[in-house]
Amino acid sequence: MIPDNGKLKVIRHDPRREQLVRIFLLVFIALLAVVTYWYGGSHAGQNLDEAQQQNLSLERQTDVLQEENNELRQRLAILEGASKMDREALNNVRLQVKQLEDEKERLHKELVFFKSILAPEDMSTGVRMAGFSLLRGDEPGQYRMRLVISQVARSNPFLRGALSVSLLGEQGGKALSIPLQQLVGGEQITTRLGFRYFQALPSDREYLDFTLPEGFQPSEIKVVIQITSGIKQHFEQIYQWDKELVGDVR
C-alpha cells in the first residue's frame, strides 16, 4: 500500500504480467537488432556490388586507354622514324649536290688551267708560270704554296732543267733569302724539271706546307727556272707576298 494524501492506496502486484512484459521487450529488441543487421548487411552488399561494378568499369576504361596510349606511341615512333629518314634523305641529297658542285668547280678550274697552257691568250712561246697560289695555313706562321710551270711552243719538245724558289724578306733588321726547299724538306720538293707541256709543284695537285722561321718577315717570293735541254732558257718571276695572300683570300 502507498499513502495518497493521507490515504492508503492498494496497488496490485502481478509478477506474471511483469515477466511477460520483460519477455516482450527482449523479443522486440532482438527482432530490432536482426532487422537492423539484415538491412545494414543488405545495404552494404549492395554498395559492395556497386563498387565492384564501378571497379570493373574503371578497369575496362583503363585497358582501353592503355591500348590507345600504346597505339599512339607506335604511331609517334613511326612518324619520328619517318621524319628522321626524311631528314637523312634530305641531308644525303644536299651532300650529293654539294659534292657535284665541288666536282663541277674542280673540273672547271682544271679546264681553265689546261686552256691557259694549251691556248694561252698572249700566245708568246717559251716557258712561263701558268699558276701560282699562296695560302695561309691552319696555325700562325704556317703557309701553303703551289706553282705550275708550262711550255708554249709549236713542237713542244721535252724540256729539262732546274727550279729554285726563295723567300725574300727581313729578320732582325737584316735582309735574308731563304730557299723554299729548306723550309719544306727535300722530300716534298724537287729542284729538277722534266716536262713537255707543264709541271706542277707538288705533282699531286696538293700544296707545299711550310712554316716561316720565327721573326722572319717575308716580302717577296722569287722563282728561278733554268732550262738546260730542249730549248735553253732562263726565266725569273717575282711575286709580292702580301699581294698573293690577298689574291688567294679573294
Quick structural summary:
By secondary structure, the chain is α+β, with helices and mostly antiparallel strands.
Break the fold down into its secondary structure elements and pairings.
Blueprint: E1 2-4, E2 7-9, H1 15-118, E3 126-136, E4 142-152, E5 159-171, E6 174-179, H2 180-184, E7 192-195, E8 198-201, E9 208-211, E10 216-229, E11 233-240, H3 241-249
Antiparallel strand pairs: 1-2, 3-4, 4-8, 4-9, 5-6, 5-7, 5-10, 10-11
Structural class: alpha+beta
Mean pLDDT: 78
Outline: rod-shaped
Q: Which CATH top level class of the largest domain fits?
A: Mainly Beta
Termini gap: 141 Å
Question: What's the CATH topology label of the largest domain?
Answer: Immunoglobulin-like
- Biggest sheet architecture: 5 strands, antiparallel
Strand content: 25-35%
SSE run: EEHEEEEHEEEEEH
If you compute it from the alpha carbons, what radius of gyration comes out, rounded to the nearest whole angstrom? 55 Å
CATH superfamily of the largest domain: Immunoglobulins
